[in-house]
Automatic annotation (TrEMBL):
Localization annotation: Cell inner membrane
InterPro entries the UniProt entry points to: YciB
Annotated keywords: Cell inner membrane, Cell membrane, Membrane, Transmembrane, Transmembrane helix
Coiled coil regions in record: none
Membrane topology: Multi-pass membrane protein
Reported function: Plays a role in cell envelope biogenesis, maintenance of cell envelope integrity and membrane homeostasis.
Gene: yciB
GO cellular component, one term: plasma membrane
Highest taxon, organism lineage: Bacteria
Main localisation: membrane
Spans through the membrane: 12-29, 41-65, 71-90, 102-124, 136-154, 166-185
Protein name from the UniProt record: Inner membrane-spanning protein YciB
Membership in a protein family: Belongs to the YciB family.
């Protein structure tokens, strides 16, 4: 199915709106306790319960507007439903905090398997966004796989050793900034192995 163009601001709002909404709701409700059906739930669990349908609605709207969702978005949505649902059902925030770890392990591991087969599976996902020679894709894939595995370890360390508020700040801003900086520092690779100039000539 051909991907349709959509207003970039709207696309960004649908992708990042639920995360920022989760952060704002957590700051608002973090010190409150709710009794639902005779069971006490901390604010974090209530916010998690609200985040799941909001995220799914935004992903559904994005799919309706563009006609496309990446594999990463689909897998992320499934893990949010599963691990977020477990946190709410069992009244245990640990499951939701484990979710980023599993996401990064899955994608980092998948990229590593592709590399062992002599393939860059990252290229299949990003080929339209980043024009690179094959050697460049292989190098970038190795770096991204290692970076994802590092983020998985970092998430585990933070949620297991620090309080929930630190983890929420890390999840909302720390991971986003880390990914942004990582790709910024790949500028030399993109310049050396980029194919755009060759195509123009």
């Amino acid at each position: 199915m051909e991907q349709r163009q959509v207003n970039p601001m709207l696309k960004t709002a649908l992708e990042f709106g639920p995360i920022l909404g989760f952060f704002a709701a957590y700051l608002w409700l973090k010190d409150r306790t709710f009794v639902i059906g005779g069971t006490e739930y901390e604010g974090f669990i209530v916010v998690t319960a609200g985040f799941i349908p909001v995220f799914l609605v935004c992903m559904g709207a994005l799919w309706a507007l563009t006609g496309h969702l990446s594999r990463m978005q689909v897998v992320t949505a499934v893990l949010i439903v599963v691990f977020g649902g477990l946190s709410v059902w069992l009244n245990d925030d640990r499951f939701f905090k484990m979710k980023p770890t599993l996401i990064y392990l899955l994608f980092g591991g998948a990229l590593a398997i592709g590399l062992m087969r002599g393939e860059s599976w990252l290229q299949y996902v990003m080929d339209g966004l980043v024009p690179l020679q094959r050697e460049g894709w292989m190098i970038l894939t190795k770096r991204v796989a290692g970076f994802f595995l590092l983020l998985a370890v970092l998430n585990e360390v933070i949620w297991r050793t620090m309080d929930t508020e630190v983890w929420v700040y890390f999840k909302t801003f720390g991971l986003t900034v880390a990914i942004f900086l990582f790709f910024m520092f790949q500028g030399g690779l993109f310049k050396q192995y980029g194919t755009q100039d060759a195509d123009e000539e």
